[in-house]
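Pilot study result, target chain (120 residues):
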Amino acid sequence: MSLTHEACPAVREVLNRVGDKWSVFVVRLLGNGPMRFSELKRAIEGISQRMLTLTLRGLERDGLITRTVFPTIPPRVDYELTKLGRTLLEPVMRLAKWAEKNRFEIHAARERFDKAAQPK
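Predicted structure:
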């Protein structure tokens, strides 16, 4: 499969969005159903409030999630995968399973590489 010169920047842009560390976590979590911001924040270890906000805005901008504000006090905001976002769930889950299955082999390869790269 080859990409046209015009398609390459578009593909790169989409892969940058869906391939970043935090977007994968968010898509995977929202695969279980709608979640509130605070639930997402608690479920994603190591993410800052600012980074979660930026990630959610980017996914919303790309049409992968929806943001619903409920007029309560305090306001309740739910995030949910869109139809397009749900189509991303399958490849994300396959990638997560691949990473889980191969993590020890990758770790061993890194150790071999690092050991070989050390000065003698």
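One observation from the pilot: The helical segments are 7-18, 21-30, 37-43, 49-61, 83-117. A full batch analysis is planned for the follow-on phase.
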